[in-house]
Amino acid sequence: MDLSLLQTLERQKILQVLQRDKMLRTIEEERIRRMKQDLQETRRRGAKTFSRQYSERTCARCQRPLGKFWNSGSVCHGCSHRICSRCRVGGTSPATMSAAEWRCTVCHAYRDVRVRSGEWFLEERAKKFPITTGRHDTVGEKLLKSYSMLSNISIVPPTPPPYLDCPILSRSGDSCLSHTTFFTKSVEDLMVSFTSHIKKISKSQNDVRGDQAERLTVGKSSAIAYTTQKSLSDTDINKSLHLTRGHSLSSLLHWSKESDQEGLSPGAEEDLPLSAFGTCSGNRGSSSSITDCGASDSSPSVTGELELALDYHNITSCLQVTVNGCRNLRYADAKKKKCNPYVKIYLERDRAQASKRKTSVKRNTTNPVYNEVLQYQIERPLLCASTLRASVWHSSNLKRKVFLGETLIPLEAWSFQETTSARYPLCSKRPMSPEGGAVEQEKAELRVRLKLGPTCQTSSISQTHGLDIASHGNHRLTVIIKGAKNLPMRANTSQNIYVKGCLTLSRGRTVGSSSSTLRKGSCSSDPPQLLFDGLSRAELADCVLVMDVWDHTHLTLTDRPLGGARLDANKIGLPWLTVLRTPNKWYDFSLPLVANFNSRRT
Amino acid sequence: MASATATYGQKESSDQNFDYMFKILIIGNSSVGKTSFLFRYADDSFTPAFVSTVGIDFKVKTIYRNDKRIKLQIWDTAGQERYRTITTAYYRGAMGFILMYDITNEDSFNAVQDWATQIKTYSWDNAQVLLVGNKCDMDDERVVSGDRARQLSDHLGFEFFEASAKDNINVKQTFERLVDIICEKMSDSLDNVDPAVTGVKQGPQLTEQPTPPRQDCAC
Predict the structure, then answer these.
(1) Which residue, A311, A429, A531, B143, is the most exposed by fewest CB within 10 angstroms?
(2) Phi, psi of A323, rounded to the nearest 5 degrees
(3) Residue-wise over B103-141: b if at least 16 C-beta within 10 A, else e?
């Protein structure tokens, strides 16, 4: 018989016992809790306490007056109060009612609870082992805790190890056998850690801190043990990503020279953090207004013009933008004839928040007059390289802002002597001129990391949805969603983003997968991923991977699409084919997100 | 010993109809019959086959004793050394111990001293221990005489029983005696603590009559 298997069974048996014990203790705790509640009630009813003044000649419990000779009461052995004969418990007959035999009702109840709850034992025991942590925090509890912690880990392996290309060790290559043995091993690790744990406890029984530290170590050590076995901790993953980044980056650069540029902007954003989902999209303050390009496409044509005057003071390095006003603006709400316009300008070399200036809001007019001066402190050489982007927006209190038009003024062409106001026609939103250099940043991108590897058909950790794995090939395509940037954020975007993937294979078969949600700002150790199982090499020859980014909204029932990306074996060229041809290697892609969803095949 | 009847059929651990809960630990060398002893007591069953206990196990039994319903959680431990770290962790929660040896096994008797030391180390100061020589039905194979055991138990301050799980000799008595002495300890503990807790003021009534010595569990 396999020894390790036997040990696993042993562990399981012990943990079952501990679980049973825990149930028993839970019931017992409930019983004790109720008992103590009752005691409180009894105490409350027995009104006289040490703190309250009372006349000597009444019963401390029932407040009945006590006589001098008849029914004079006597002092309770427990609480030293004078108690009438009715409020005594214990003592069998009046003849033997000596002081030691009875207690008043409250003392009796207190004593009773201490007996019944086993508190007497805990008190006695505390003389030798001072109560350190929670009274009920027993060894079994700790073991169960550490076990459950471990079992969580072992049931859901957190992430595929990206740099391990050996098929047996990599997640996608998890064979049935390796799965069981690793589980066995993890449980063994638990035992190792918890036996050492107990050893430590018994050695340092009186040391609270040591005890707690030990408990921490149990979790940690088991996790570490696990990590070395199979998986990678967060830091490891980051490290590994850095490791692979160098390789894949250079290769991507290499490929992109040969292939068409579509969809690849290698290296540009590699410095972004892993959890960069949405973090680059717009600026914090008015992200809604900056990147609201989706709405402007469908909006009515932009009309009107903006009157500006520019003035630069060489001595103070100060650019003054005088916003005179606008004319013939379109209504933000054409039906209600509403328009509360204001002007916002950016001095665009970058989209830094600092360069934003806004005028006040003029209410209910399409010909607002501002005459406001907005200033920038900027050196002249820098100014020459900048573009002034002035946009007009409709402001309403609750709803999102409405874009009314904008104009771009390249300052390179501006002669500094020209300080009179000029009228600039407003046009619909457009990317900056190539000189501005900000076009690249505008583009919404999805950053993914792909690997093709063999898969285990009976893998219990398959996360695919609605797939018939068995009947097809034995390859798995793993797509880790590293992040997205410049997503078209709207005012009510929840920023809980997930990705739906659809892999269309050569024979027309489609395989779907959906990633977990990636919340903004969460440094998840478990990046969302898509898994496509049961693929054969033949099918993959000219497959198309379409990934749609969705905004998981809490308030509305339907999730909202944010954009789609496409990996087409026929179009994108070499890198994607390389993924398909060289299994077990990770490749990074930055894919442009397109708002058009019609390309998606379902 | 007060007359008492153990009530059977109250084994459900979820039963809350009881007054106290005592935790008892059975320890001793491997194969002295700890598990058999427990099974005889809790289930009134016996199997001659030897199955080594894995780590720890427990059974729950509710008995009726001194007008109180007492729920016993009896922990059965593995005698094997390799489980020692687990078993010793449970010493601390136990109010009483049954230290068992096999009368046909000299080693198990020689280890009694060590087990007693373990109890001293890992358990509370008032731990109640009963020394039990099991397998007294196998008198023809006996290697540990009752006198030697009695001497040792006197030396250690434990009470002593010879018992047989197989023939159901002294099994119930052992547990009941242990419950009784735990009860005694309990009332001692309560009487000692009471004045300290409540700050007794010595009234005239108290000095009139000396407290009669307590003879039984004052539950």
Answers:
(1) B143
(2) -95, 110
(3) bbbeebbebbeebbebbeebbbebbbbbbbbbbbbeeee
> Residue A107 is nearest to which of B88, B95, B198, comparing CB atoms?
B198
Shortest CA distance from B121: residue in chain A: A202
Question: Are A115 and B54 a contacting pair at CB < 8 A?
Answer: no
Q: Are the CB atoms for A159 and A236 separated by under 8 Å?
A: no
CA distance A231 to chain B (A): 29
Decide: pTM greater than 0.90. no
A-B CB pairs within 8 A amount to 117
Return the SS3 of A365.
coil
Q: Compare A450 and A228 and report the one with higher pLDDT.
A: A450
CB contact under 8 A, A17 and B58: yes
Higher pLDDT, A204 or A361: A361
d(CA B101, CA B116): 12
CA distance B1 to A599: 90
Q: Kindly report the nearest CA distance between residue B163 and chain A, in angstroms.
A: 27
Residue A281 scores a pLDDT above 60:
no
Query: Scanning every residue of chain A, which has its alpha carbon at the shortest distance from the alpha carbon of B17?
Result: A31
| pLDDT, tens digit, 9 for 90 and up, residues A112-145 | 888 888 888 888 888 777 765 544 456 667 667 6
Give the model confidence (pLDDT) of A498-523 as tens digits.
788 888 777 777 777 777 776 554 44
Name which of B20, B125, B186 is nearest A128 (Cβ-Cβ).
Answer: B125
Q: Is A116 on the interface with B (CB under 8 A)?
A: yes
- Of the candidates A503, A78, A395, the residue with the CA atom closest to the CA atom of residue B196: A78
pLDDT digits (tens, 9 = 90+) for A33-63: 888 888 888 777 665 444 455 556 777 777 7
CB distance B209–A98 less than 8 Å? yes
Stated length of chain A: 602
Supply the DSSP string of chain B, one letter for each residue.
Answer: -----PPPS---TT----SEEEEEEEEESTTSSHHHHHHHHHH-----S-----SEEEEEEEEEETTEEEEEEEEEE--SGGGHHHHHHTTTT-SEEEEEEETT-HHHHHTHHHHHHHHHHHS-TT-EEEEEEE-TT-GGG--S-HHHHHHHHHHHT-EEEE-BTTTTBSHHHHHHHHHHHHHHHHHHHHHHHHHHHHT----HHHHHSPPPPP-S---
| SS3 at position A4 | helix
| Chain B contact set for A31 (CB, 8 A) | 16
Among A31, A79, A198, the residue with its CB nearest the CB of B198 is A79
Residue A214 Cα, gap to closest chain B Cα (Å): 14
Q: What are phi and psi of A46, to 5 degrees?
A: -75, 95
Residues in A closer than 8 angstroms to B211, CB to CB, are 98, 100
